Amino acid sequence: MNVRPMEDRVILKAMDAQEKTSGGIYIPDNAKEKPQKGEVVAVGPGKTNDKGQRIEMTLKKGDKVLYGKYAGTEVTVDGVEYLIVRESDVLAVI
Q1: SS3 at position 70
Q2: What tens digit of pLDDT does each residue of 10-56 get?
Q3: pTM
Q4: CA 76, CA 71: separation in Å to the nearest integer?
Q5: What are the strands of the beta sheet with 37-43, ordered from one edge?
Q6: End-to-end CA distance of the chain
Q7: Which residues of 24-46 are buried (b: 16+ CB within 10 A; e: fewer)?
Q8: HSE-up of 38 (CA within 13 Å, CB side)?
Q9: Which H helix or E strand runs over 91?
Q10: Paired residues of 20 in beta bridges
């Protein structure tokens, strides 16, 4: 991938939505919810504070995370869909 996130942004690859309920019922494609889990593919260098010092990112490549339902911007690179979000939009590391 030739895309590099800027500042405190993170590039995520969404994990597949659940295909089947715990009761064994298959969910059709049009009824699936937008996934809120993803894997970190790339991390920016971090944000700079008012003094010009770089604040390091707490996320790293390979982390599996939960993010807000409507967070970020969807982009397609080389036929693969990614989501670019700010580190603050990530809710938790799984």
Answers
A1: coil
A2: 999 988 665 666 677 776 666 555 668 999 999 999 999 999 899 99
A3: 0.78
A4: 16
A5: 73-77, 80-86, 9-14, 37-43, 64-67, 90-93
A6: 24
A7: eeeeeeeeeeebbbbebbbbbeb
A8: 29
A9: strand 90-93
A10: 26
